[in-house]
Amino acid sequence: MSKSIRRMTAPELLSxxxxxxxxxDRFILKEGLPVCDFDSSSDKLLRPTENDDDNYAYRVFIxxxxxxxxxxxxxxxxxxxxxxxxxRHPELLERNKESEAFWGVGGKQRKRNVFPCSPGTKWEQIxxxxxxxxxxxxxxxxxxxxxxxxxxxxxxxRHGKPxxxxxxxxxFAINNGQITSTNLNYDPRLPDTTKRLNKHFKQLFRIDDSIxxxxxxxxxxYKTKIFFSDQTKVTS
Length: 236
What we know:
By secondary structure, the chain is of the alpha+beta class. The protein has 9 helices and 11 strands. It folds into 2 domains: about 90 residues, no CATH class; about 110 residues, no CATH class. The radius of gyration is 20 Å and the shape is elongated.
């Protein structure tokens, strides 16, 4: 009987590098991480054809992961490709070491009870700090954790890209929780998403009150009760 082909699945790679699907998306489509589909009938890893403009094997299955999690097994990686990618990005292994206290021994993620929040929690007790384009740190009375936009259900189910709600979260962080039409990076479409963000956060955190202070017209903009800040502004 032939020996099974050596490969690593997407969930195994996420655990190895302590990343989420948003970061994996970037590594595949922008950083050139090769990905394959596993054909169980022939016991082979199939790469996209050379004339593909995009990574076909990846695009076919990532578009469906949000509807059928079982398909994540179709995202496979050759060990030699992973090793080569880690040589180009040694920070991935460093992140693994730095995350050990949070994730626990053996790459098993510790339970995070950051939200839903306990009854009686106020928005003023919540902090959201922007870490980069894809992640925030959330602090509540129950603890803190780092989350990428897909973990906050702010990814478009059709292709996994950030939604306008995520762009609004970033804008609030960049502007310390208050936005008006005079803000930098202001998008005229964003005010239309404020009601949806309010509804989404109330469901996510299980806090019934509005996340906003006052009224849009009186404040000439939106100001949140949540403490927002932008860590990306910090320079060494």
